[in-house]
Write a structure and sequence with these properties.
The complex is a heterodimer of chains A (about 120) and B (about 120). Chain A has about 120 residues and is mainly beta. Chain A contains no helices and 12 strands. In chain A, a hairpin with an 8-residue loop joins strand 10 and strand 11. The chains are: A mainly beta (about 120), B mainly beta (about 120).
């Protein structure tokens, strides 16, 4: 079963606007971590933001914020004031408990295109 | 901080040869390293998890004799694709995690093309 679901294969946003990339997850663990990574066309995976399952406040990192709704099992990424350089693939990932070896389960990704 | 390097960034080889890919954590000690594979326009798929000084744990369906993983030090893990075939052509990317932290930092990836 898919543990991370990203329902938006592609998204467009105009420069300077905000955009929300959706992510839902499935786990029975109480302790888990949620991540967002950016992958530009060069292929490198760039860490953006992290939310622990016990964190009460939504994580923020500069223009990135994570809208964590635990009861809904969602962890949407919000990018404010989009820039042309934000065009890339975005992956949501989850780290489950120790039994999983701390490996990440990735969603299928969302391709974001920022237009002028 | 938290820089992970990977070498080579791309490699082209003949079918039947072996290829070694190195993954290094440059500014932290990586107790655990992970190897992923990514096909074009697809997500990352975990191949194996390696802890320093231990044998790697392979995911179901990944041949451990074909994809040899060594994690001999806290800053270096290697993936050797043995007797490579065209179907092994892919983007291989490693990540590294320090002890008592959650975040994995990724290397820039290696694009392997087997002719």
């Amino acid at each position: 079963a898919q543990k991370i679901t990203q329902t938006q294969p592609g998204m467009f946003v105009q420069e300077k606007e905000a955009v929300t990339l959706d992510c839902t997850y499935d786990t029975s663990d109480q302790s888990y971590g949620l991540f967002w990574y950016k992958q530009p066309s060069s292929g490198e995976m760039i860490f953006l933001i992290y939310q622990g399952s016990y964190d009460e406040q939504n994580a923020t990192e500069g223009r990135y914020s994570l809208n964590f709704q635990k009861a809904r099992k969602s962890a949407n990424l919000v990018i404010s004031a989009s820039q042309l350089g934000d065009s890339a693939m975005y992956f949501c990932a989850m780290r489950e408990g120790p039994d999983s070896g701390y490996a990440l389960n990735f969603g299928k990704g969302t391709s974001l295109l920022v237009t002028p | 901080g938290a820089v992970v390097s990977q070498h080579p960034s791309w490699v082209i080889c003949k079918s039947g040869t072996s290829v070694k890919i190195e993954c290094r954590s440059l500014d932290f000690q990586a107790t655990t390293m992970f190897w992923y594979r990514q096909f074009p326009k697809q997500s990352l798929m975990l191949m194996a998890t390696s802890n320093e000084g231990s044998k790697a744990t392979y995911e179901q369906g990944v041949e451990k004799d074909k994809f040899l993983i060594n994690h001999a030090s806290l800053t270096l893990s290697t993936l050797t694709v043995t007797s490579a075939h065209p179907e092994d052509s892919s983007f291989y990317i490693c990540s590294a995690k320090a002890e008592r932290t959650d975040t994995q930092y990724f290397g820039p990836g290696t694009r392997l093309t087997v002719l």
